[in-house]
User: Fold this.
Amino acid sequence: MMAGEAALRFSGADLSLGGRVVLRDLDFAIPQGAFVGVLGPNGAGKTTLLRSVLGLVKPQAGSIEVLGYQAGDRRALIGYMPQTRAPLSDLKLSGHDFVAAAACGGGWGLPVLSRLQRGDVERVLDMVDAAAYAHRPVATLSGGERQRLLLAQALLGSPNMLLLDEPLSSLDPHHQAATIGFLRDVQQRLGITVLFSAHELNPLLPVLDQVLYLGSGHAALGSVEEVITAPVLSRLYGAPIEVLHVQGRIFVMAGGHEVERDAHVHL
Amino acid sequence: MFTYDFMQNAFAAALIVAVVSGAAGYFLVLRGQSFAGHALGHVGFAGATGAILLGASPFWGLIAVTTLGGALMGFAGENLAERDVAIGMVLSLALGLGLLFLNFFTGSSIQATSLLFGNVLGVDAATLWRMAWAGVLTLAALAAMSRKLLFASVRPELAEAKGIDLRLISMLFLALVGVAVAEAVQVVGVLLVFTLMVGPAATAQRLSPTLVGGFCLTVGLAAGQALAGVALAYLTDWPTSFWISALSAGCYLAAQAK
Assistant:
């Protein structure tokens, strides 16, 4: 792979979900090693976009290239952390075996790990600092500890790119900050590309290289200064938007309401 | 007590049922679908009595309905599992229908009792062979799908993204649970399927969080409880199903206290 080649390139891609086009004419490239926040209101297509990178959602038009390959062709290059629909608070299995179940993968037969896979499980548990509590049942772990196990699953197989779908959604603010710092640390140690979807911009401000903002079927990619501006966001929301900077925090306002706060109310 | 044929058959039947129920029950509890096992037992009652009414073997009626019922529940997916009222209604209807079928046939309460509460002391050699075959096939199928099943059970979102068909896995698994339920009914009856299917697994998962430890402990507990239940029934002349349910509940409570 040549240096400077894009990790991810969308070329005129249309993405649809259930027959409805949710994102139109996506055209951008994300450089390797970037930490990218994928933001936008509920239903803007954040999950659809991440799934398209995995090849689970095929573009209706245009193309998506991941590290030089067509999306879906080299799944092993990508680690994925989908949102958990059911909380893991009832799972009596140990953290180690929870991660090992993912390492076993989806083949037929007994869930027996090869030597290589066993080593991989230990490696990712060490990487997320979970070795100390991996023997305990998942049900007894804190939200932050469970989040690290989910990240460990995504890191199995040493991917070159991580797609994290709302990794902060079930965490309190304290754990959110810790998780973000930790993710940034892992990303820099491994030198991998991270796409991180979230509701809120402010917790991510210290770590973001780029923002990919989705809205009204379109996307804008760039630095925070370039994208989180009144003209760009007004275009994405299809309504007049104000952007306020207050003591290092950014508030996106529509008609006197804070947009992100409204997004939470709808949850 | 080991010299009588019926006792040997009873011990063998209890062992087969315990191993199959334990193995299926481990994943059932891991997936949080305990209630499905209970439900399939009730539905099976209508199948067994319906088969009697038609002049067929109750075992085949039972296994046909529980397997089909399991596959349907798997197809309906999570949405169904949350509709507790709908499930409760179907269960009650199945029991009511079973009663009606029995009524048409002979009105025999002995047959009803052995279906509802099991009759392990009445297992003959032919039934035993049938149970052994069904058990071996169930275990083989469970082993073949266990890798996918485990992944789909603990991390469905990621398993789906990796190409596992969650609905297919759920249908296959609950169909296997249906076979295991039909087996368990021979020993503990439709009303007490929970004791062998869920009790040992819930106890074991409380005691050992590892996959291998929890699974082996589940099968061991189920086998121990079923065999001890048969032995205690012989010694006390109390019903086997009472002893198995008491041992199952006792172990569960002891594990909770830990």
